[in-house]
Amino acid sequence: MKSDRNFDDLADHFARKIYGTLKGEIRLAVIWRDLLAYLPELESGTCLRVLDVGAGMGQTSLRLAEMGHRVTLNDVSREMLAKARQQARERGVDDRIEWSCGPYQELQRSVSGKFDLVLCHALMEWLSEPSELIPALKSFMSPGAALSLTFYNQHSLVYRNLIRGNFNLLDREFIADGGSLTPGQPLLPEKVGEWVAENGLGIQTSSGIRVFHDYVIARRGGHENPQAVIDKELEYSSREPYKWLGRYIHYLVR
Fold first, then answer.
1. Fewer CB atoms near the end CB (10 Å): N or C, the chain?
2. Please, are residues 48 and 25 in contact by the beta-carbon 8 Å criterion?
3. Is the dihedral of CA 116, 249, 137, 74 positive or negative?
4. Calpha distance 187→215 (Å, rounded)
């Protein structure tokens, strides 16, 4: 039987391979561009209540805390939370953050009230029952609240295997390596959109995260310049049809 993924065993690997690389910089650049563009209240001086579910090392939450917001940070991995808490202390925002260790299914036991912004980045694709996540997140949203949701894009997995010539992998059920950071449940943006609508929510904007970076086999020209890569990723992340090739999709939901 499938179970939800816990990153206690891969916390250091995750930190090096994702957050410590250009991949992580691109992810954060796209997410922040969308948040600041569509949620002006983040910079209005009002203190918002924020819930970050499956927050990992808490990069987004820590920045929100630095902006003056109150954050509740949740993750099932004690190792990931320990790394996040260390960063919070170093950045002087530990007093603005509440900590919750456990699966999202048990959040109601430790977290009370409603939130103005709910973050859930790169969690859905690691769940055994991803369709159950959105209604659970909605239960924490106050009237008019926003949900920032990212998930691993199944279209990108197919496209990457086509580029690499891994045709044999396209004719069988996808099974992720247990020691890999490739999620076990790649998701179709159309299906996630259906789940959003079924829960009475609407997608305000959508973006692709890493629409070309992960497909590059031989770096040359602009690929040698990290800032140029980020700039082009931002430019094409919201442009049709390129955004739907992103390794991850970002939905900002109201």
1. N
2. no
3. negative
4. 18
